[in-house]
Design a protein that fits this description.
Structural class: alpha+beta
Strand content: 15-25%
Number of domains: 1
Distance between the termini: 58 Å
Helix content: 25-40%
Strand order of the largest sheet: 2-1-9-8-7-6-5
Number of strands: 9
Radius of gyration: 19 Å
CATH superfamily: FAS1 domain
Number of helices: 6
Largest sheet: 7 strands, mixed
CATH class: Mainly Beta
CATH topology: FAS1 domain
């Protein structure tokens, strides 16, 4: 009986350990972070999350960027808005499909999330948001020029867990200096043959960039 209780406790501990270390892919379901395909093909395999983004990319005539055949090459980083965010944008603007969006808007929204270098979670510098709500850039982190021309201040931060500051998962935070808005990455380090995807939270809005 003692042996059975010991094994049960060991299994429970192992389960807890796994759930605590897989945090980078929990929020939007990308539990497998490495994909032996292009970024475009990865999007195609998960239509629930990425179909509307693909429609925007196609409308903007930017498919080659995600297939790795554009001048950006095969080492891009993309902060991707999921279909949930795009659907919210359509609803808020009285539209029912991506086809109703102006082509220039599609292009701008797509390029807002594109960084022309490969950056994994640990490649971004740690930082901390400013304690002053009127100051966009806090300490640490780094400012990047995105493909759209906008500037993002990006940093990583370990969230609080169990009431202990810094004991939680490391997350990427993106502050658009143009939109004056900070957004959190839900799932990071989704690696493909043509770059890395960092999936934005479901409550992210296109105007946040």
């Amino acid at each position: 009986m003692k042996r059975i209780k010991f094994l049960a406790a060991a299994c429970l501990l192992a389960l807890i350990s796994v759930s605590c270390t897989q945090y980078n892919f929990d929020d939007t379901g990308e539990a497998n972070g490495i994909h032996d395909c292009t970024m475009w093909e990865y999007f195609s395999k998960d239509p629930y999350n990425w179909q509307l983004l693909q429609e925007m990319i196609t409308r903007a005539q930017l498919e080659d960027v995600f297939k790795g055949t554009s001048s950006y090459g095969k080492d891009i980083t993309y902060f991707g808005a999921t279909s949930n965010s795009i659907r919210a944008y359509l609803f808020e603007n009285g539209m029912t499909s991506v086809e109703e969006m102006p082509i220039d808007d599609c292009k701008a929204f797509v390029l807002n999330g594109l960084l022309n270098k490969r950056m994994l979670l640990d490649d971004f510098k740690p930082g901390r948001k400013s304690s002053d709500a009127n100051v966009l850039v806090g300490t640490g982190g780094e400012t990047f020029d995105m493909a759209s021309g906008k500037q993002f201040w990006i940093y990583t931060f370990n969230d609080t867990f169990g009431g202990v500051p810094g004991a939680g998962p490391k997350r990427i935070y993106v502050t658009s200096l143009d939109a004056s808005k900070e957004s959190a990455v839900a799932s990071s380090n989704i690696q493909t043959l043509t770059g890395v995807v960092h999936s934005m939270d479901y409550d992210f809005r296109l105007s946040d960039f």
